[in-house]
Amino acid sequence: MNSIPTIALGLAKGGLPILPLRADKRPFGNCRACEDLACGGRPNMAAPGPCGCPWPCHGWAAATTDRRVLASPQWAAAWRRAGTIGYHPGGAGVTVVDLDNSTAVDWARTNLSPTTTVPTTRGEHWIYRGAMRSVNGVRDGVDLKSSMSYARWLGPGTGTLAELPDVVRALAEKKSTPVRPAPRAVTVPAPSGGGECRHRSPAYLERGIAMAEQRIADAASAVHVTVYRTFLAVLSAHGRCGCLTEAHIGRLFIAAQAKGESPRHCTDAWSNARTGLGM
After folding, report:
1. Which single residue of 43, 63, 144, 181 could bond 88 by disulfide (Cβ 3.0 to 4.6 Å)?
2. Per-residue pLDDT of the chain (279 residues; tens, 9 = 90+)
C-alpha cells in the first residue's frame, strides 16, 4: 500500500506546505487549463492572481497545507502516481542547504553551525530556520533551497533546528553580485519538444522573444526577479513544443547580462524556471 498520501497529510497537518513529486523527483506538469498561465497563475508566480485549478500544477507554488486540497480527487490521483513528497522550504520558513557530495558535507561541518541534518542519496540536507532567496551552485555541490523552490521530504532528520547563519546568506549575496560582463551568447540546451505547436506563425514566437528582451531591458530594479519571471513566462508559452531554439535562449541571456546578470545566474534562473514548470 502506498504510504505517501498518509505521510503527506501528516506533514501538512504539522504546517509543512507539500506537493507530490513524480518518480523522477520533479513536480507534476501543468494541465491544459494552466498552460501558458492562462489560469492566472498561482500566488507568487509570474502572472497575477490565484489559480482555481484543482490539480497540483505550477511546481513549488502548488505546495499547500490545505487538507481539503490535498485529499481532493485530483490530488489523490497525483498522490497515487507520486514517487516521493516535495515541500516548499520558504513557505515553511526554512532554508535547505543541499550538500550534494562528501566534499560539500565536509565544508559544511567546518564552516556552518550545527542544525537539523537529513541524509540524501549523495550527501546531506542541512536545514535552518529562516527563509531567503533560493540560489543554485553557491559552491561546488552546494545549492540553497528556500523561497520559490522545492525540496524532497527525506524524513525529520536529526539535531536541533538552528537559525540561518550569516555565512549562508553571504554565499547567496556573493553569488548574485552583478559583475556586468560584456554580453555574450551562452549555449544552453533548449527544452525538449514533442508537444503540439500552437504558434500561429514564426512571427508569434519572434514577437514573444522581443517582448521578453524588452521586459528585461526595462527593469529598473529587482533585476534577478525580473529575469526569472521573464524566463518563466517564455518557457510557459514556448517551451514545450520544440520551437524554442538555442538562438532564442541566447538572446534572452544576452539581455540579462546587459543588465548585470552573470552567465551562471542566467543558467540558474533558466533551470529554476524549468523546474518550477515541471519541465
Report:
1. 63
2. 468 889 999 999 999 999 999 988 888 877 877 766 667 666 655 444 556 788 888 888 889 999 888 889 999 999 989 999 999 998 899 999 999 999 999 999 999 999 999 999 999 999 999 998 888 889 999 999 998 789 999 999 999 999 999 999 998 877 654 444 444 444 444 444 444 555 556 677 787 888 888 888 887 777 878 888 888 888 887 877 777 787 888 888 888 888 877 777 788 888 888 877 777
Is residue 168 a contact partner of residue 128, using CB atoms and an 8 Å limit? Answer: yes
DSSP structure class, residue 235:
H
What is the spatial distance between Cα 141 and Cα 102, in angstroms, rounded to a whole number? Answer: 9
**pTM (global) more than 0.70:** no
Sequence-ordered alpha helix ranges (H) in the chain: 4-13, 67-70, 73-81, 102-111, 166-176, 202-217, 223-238, 246-258, 263-276
Q: For residues 161 and 94, give the distance between their C-alpha atoms in angstroms, rounded to a whole number.
A: 9
Residue 212 CB burial class (10 angstroms; 0-12, 13-18, ≥19): buried
The grid cell for 169 is: 546568506
Q: What is each CA distance from 135 to 74, 206, 267, in whole angstroms? A: 32, 30, 11
Cα 121-124-129 angle, rounded to 5 deg: 140
Q: From CA 158, how far away is CA 40, in angstroms rounded?
A: 40
> Do 184 and 254 meet the contact criterion of CB atoms below 8 Å apart?
yes
d(CA 85, CA 92): 15
Buried b (16+ CB within 10 A) or exposed e, 116-142: bbbeeeebbbbbbebbbbbbbbbbebb
